[in-house]
């Protein structure tokens, strides 16, 4: 019986949490519709006690999703909403805003240029452009590639949430003799990516394929994608990586600006 009571209480607790989330979202909806409202008005519309409405508003205010209008005791949507909307807009606009920049970079480098995002523990390519000297016209759009063995993946991983980093460190599959499969070496590599501001690979995913990547930032300054240039190892040699990265970072900065980053 004791275990049954615990499960029931846990279930009720989850139900209360879901109800609180639903009410908090309802507050955001009310403020979006009205423009502003006081705690008493919110409580009345939600049909809850004023103390409950005050607690919910407090939680939203702590996240900057609502803000109090000084000296009026009313609340309105806060800057946190703009931040979330900016992140969403950046993701939606990324392919459209990246394409012309990638095409220019592909012509400048005369190699293949891609933009990739972090998706379910891997790098997913969403934009691609070819240079005239590209050895292959392989279509990478929609393809998922390992984070630890690609230049874009290393950039995404360098600024990834802890959960994604932990998952990557547990799945260091070898693709070529040069693939990094040591946790300590990968962590050191990622520290170098953050320090330099760009990532690279030398025949780590495919023998004969090298690449350099730079971070693309969204409206809140977080890394939302990576732009990379790849080419055959005999043409894109490691000695050229710094100069390639400098030009690539300029393109990445342009894409970042186009999707709302003004850092």
What does this structure look like?
A hairpin with a 5-residue loop joins strand 8 and strand 9. The strands form two sheets. This protein has a six-stranded antiparallel sheet with strand order 6-5-4-9-8-7, with helices on both faces. A three-stranded antiparallel sheet has the order 1-3-2. Helix 1 packs across helix 3, helix 2 (39-46) crosses helix 3 (50-62) and helix 5 (151-158) packs across helix 7. The chain is built from eight helices and nine strands. The model is unreliable at 1-11 (pLDDT under 50). The chain is 51% helix and 19% strand. By secondary structure, the protein is α+β, with helices and mostly antiparallel strands. The longest helix has 33 residues, at 2-34.
- Coarse morphology: elongated
Oligomer: single chain
The SS-based structural class is alpha+beta
Strand order of the largest sheet: 6-5-4-9-8-7
User: Span between N and C termini?
Assistant: 59 Å
Helix percent reads 40-55%
Biggest sheet details = 6 strands, antiparallel
> What is the number of strand segments?
9
Overall pLDDT: 88
Features:
9 strands; three-stranded antiparallel sheet; disordered N terminus; 263 residues
Summarize this entry quickly:
This protein is of the alpha+beta class and 263 residues long. 51% of the residues lie in helices and 19% in strands.
